[in-house]
Amino acid sequence: MTIKNRYPLPLISELMDKLGSAKYFTKLDVCWGYNNVCIKKDDEWKATFRTNRGLFEPTVMFFGLTNSPATFQWMMNDIFKDLIATGKVTVYLDDILIFSKTLEEHRKITCCVLELLRKHKLFLKAEKCEFKVLETEYLGVIISEGSIRMDPIKVAGITEWPVPTKKKELQSFLGFTNFYRCFIKDYSAIVRPMTKLTGKESWT
Asked: Which ranges carry the Reverse transcriptase domain (predicted)?
């Protein structure tokens, strides 16, 4: 029986509140995510999985394990705790965001982050990184100086969403739109009729 790791993932809304009037942004994406966490020696058997080639015992954590997100978030928070405390760095799993008002400060913090990544042998996906930009997409929203707005791609995803014909489809739609409720005036009132349909009422 797996004991659930209750270490909390940061709330995206709280991360966004920290941006303040930042002008410069650097976004970093860590390679291999959960695979960066080694499974404790002699505990590998607990994560054994079966394939058509037999049973395998992994040596690193992988997607699908109950505690992968919490464990990885704890590791990242522990590595960057001092920088996170400055209010200039946020970390959500493998996504790191550096933000500041001045370019000089930005360069300094970025160097500190990169040094920590090197120290802990964490690598970045170069194609997903952006350095000292004035606008970037982070965790599904577009951020810039004094502005946070919905990603146009996500807006299109909502407007072009097929009309739900099953309860599960409606739940998926509401789950997606709920993420952006802060951008939608009177969201609760708008979705109330749909939310009722996710209850015990039968569909016709």
From this structure: 1-143
